[in-house]
Structure formats: C-alpha cells, structure tokens
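Subject: Protein record for review, amino acid sequence with backbone structure tokens
Category: Structural biology, sequence-to-fold work with a learned token vocabulary.
Format: Residues in single-letter code; tokens as whole numbers, each standing for a residue.
Body of memo: The sequence and its backbone structure tokens, given next.
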Amino acid sequence: MEAGSRQRMDVPLHRANLGPAMPSRCPRRVASLALLWTLLPTAAAATEARSEALAGSPFLFDDTDVFRFPSALPRHAGLVVVSDGLATGLGPHGGVILGDQLAFGLFVGRRSGGRALDLRNEVLDGPQLPIPEKIVDLLVAYRVDAAHTAGLSIGVSHGLDRSTNRDAGDNGTVTASVELMVGHSWDSPQGHLDSAFGLEFPYYRSTERFEVLAEVPVDPSFTLSHRSFWSLGGRVQAAVSAGLRRDDLDITLPAAGRSATGSVWWMELEAGPRILVSSQVTLAVSAVLSREARTVDDLDSPPRRSSQGETVITRVPGFRVALEGRPTTWLDVRFGLLGGRLQRTTEDGAGNSAATSESSAAWTTGVGLRLGDLRLDGILTREVLREGPNFVGGTTPGLFTSFAASYIF
C-alpha cells in the first residue's frame, strides 16, 4: 500500500505476498519513500477504545503509539481524533495530527501527567497529593530519509487552588508536571524499530498561613521505551517491546518536621509472534515479564531506620493475546486478554517480610465501524455479551464502556 493510504487492519512489515497495493491518496511523494512505506505496518485511525479492546497490546499499531514514540507521528498524519477516555481514565480529550515529512500533533485534555506525584500517594503514608490536569501535548516529527524518523513531544500539566492575603498569608496548593520525550524510528524491508527516552519533572507545594505544609522537589523521572519487529518470512514477525522507568519519592513536610526519600523502579519485557492469519485477521500473542520495586530509603519519623523497606511486585509468567478481524468491509471486531501470576513481596527494613501471590486475567472486546473516512470505535460492556442490549430484548442499557471517533483527511 502506498504512502498516505490507510486501511483499518494491521499488516506485516513484509508485504510481498499480499497482492497489489491500494491506490495512493498522496501521489506527490517521492517514489523511494512510497516504496518503503508499503513495507511499514499500516496505522489504524483509532484511539484508546481500540487499544484497550486489544488489551493494550503494543504489537497492533494505533495512533496512541505517538505518546510512547513521538517519531511514529508521520504514520498517522492527516487525522483528527476524539475520545471519552473512560477506558483509561484519561478523560474526554481530542487532537489532530498534520503534515507529511514534517508532522505536527496537538492534543488537549489527556489526563496523563503527574505519575511521579501519584506514586507518592500509593507508597507513602501522608497527604494525598492532587494530580495536575493535562493542559496540552505538543508533538513534532521529521522524516530524515526513507529509513529514519526523529520525534519530540512536550506535555504540560498544571493545577492551582490558592488564595493570598496580607493577614492569612499564602494558602492553597500548586501542582505541575512537564514531560519531555525524544524518539527515533527506523524502517526497512527486514524490520522496524521504535525507541524513545523521556523525562518528567513534577512539582507540588502546599501552604497554609505562611507555612509550607508539604513540598515535592523538581526531581526528574526518566523512561526508556523500545519496540521492534523483525520479519520471519511470509506472514509472521517476531515482536519485542521493553520499558524501563525510575521515579523519585522524595517529599518534605516542613511544618511537621518530616521528610521521606525513596524510589520506584519499573521494568517490562514482552515478546512473541505477530501473525497475519489472513488478509482480514491479525493475531499477536506474547509472553510478559514485569517487575516494580518500591523502596523507601528514609522516613524522618518513628521508627527511624536507615531503610524503611521495599515492596516488589512481579508478573511472571504473564501473557497477552490480541486479535482483530474484519468480517465485513464496514466492521472490525476485537478481542484482548491479559493475564499472569502476580507475586508481591514486602520487607519492612527491620528484618520482617511477607509474600503473597495470585493469578489474574482480564479480557476485553470491542468493535469498530468504518463509514468512509470516519471511524467509530467502542469497548463492549461484558453485560451486553452475556445478556444482550435492552433495545433487542436484553437487559443491558448501554453497549460501550468507552467510545472514540476519528477522521482521516
């Protein structure tokens, strides 16, 4: 398929046996770039509703990839998206991606900032920190040549609840987060690779009557991300995805004379085949290993110890399945399954420890409607599958838990 044209299904990087390409919608592009573009995975014009219906698999391409790999932006140029954000907790948001060799993206309303602050709420006993609201995500990418693309994204979140007067002093809270990410993509007939490095700078300050109650310093968190696909011939690719992140837990409570320091390390590795079962069905099956270690190094309140302990959460073995099919020219159906065994170990710094384990699995289903260049995607409720919708005699009042729309231009 030539550059600029899109279809809903993912295709493998090597398309030699899949028949003739579809007509191009952008014939002005140079021939060498168009030829390489036929070897790339075709972008699907959907948002979180499609991704979450596929259990969040990184191996079925979606425009949400641009938030993990900003260098993926040119693959989705010429797109407007809106989403209710209910499936991921991002809230109602929307955006547009423009350009060609040089692509720009603008998204507003995504509640995706403040992870470094939210971790303090989960790990530390203390004040619950408000999470800043995302104001804007700005993205830009430049296709250097037919094989290499560089990308950059900036996300800004901010929250303010504050009052100041001469007698009562400064009262209220200010919270903020700035996210910076750079990325690189490499594409060839043999494979495809995305990599990115990101930094998040959080800040929080709470004051009351001239006193600082709590403050979070501007200590950056960092993220490393990678995804690659390598052709094994025919309709099969080997796919790998990896991620690494570190967050600080430092916080001071000057009015109470307390402070805490700590860190959270998170890593995930996922690998498996991505298979084009037929021209209308794509399947990705992968093994998942993830580990999160939460360590509180110092807590300046009783009991005072050099280490306050560590909590480690490991998913092993884990698995993910994503299946997307197109039974008709206007309908896509999706299924996702994520599961594994979670092991949790806790050590309190005084020689006491505990360990628990449990198995978990969650499945999702969704549908997509294609009406010309308009795409409508939803995640089906589990009740509607068991009991049917009420407008055809069932008992479920609604069809979807989340809904998104996108338009290709």
About this structure: The first helix runs from residue 31 to 37. The chain has a mean pLDDT of 81. The radius of gyration is 23 Å. Helices lie at 31-37, 48-53, 115-123, 382-387.
